[in-house]
Amino acid sequence: MLVEQGKFETISDAVRAAIEAFVKNELTPENIKKMTVELPKGNVIELEMLVNNGDSISVDDAIRNAVREYIRIKMSKTVDELDR
User: Fold this and answer.
1) Which tens digits make up the pLDDT trace of 24-35?
2) Is 39 found in the same domain as 24?
């Protein structure tokens, strides 16, 4: 309907805008907790290797990417289950 009304060019644009609005409204600093996690030395070495190989800009970035990928996979599985 929003595409038909000319508010968005595509459905993807409308969905993207909705997600951005949700993130902006719900994931505000007061709703986000910073976590500190102690990792085994082997994991830290693997993360540092990602940084040294240029796959991440920092260990924190590598962790964020891993968490983002984990969430993407979980969400994809959930959507697949809902579609059944």
Assistant:
1) 787 777 766 777
2) no
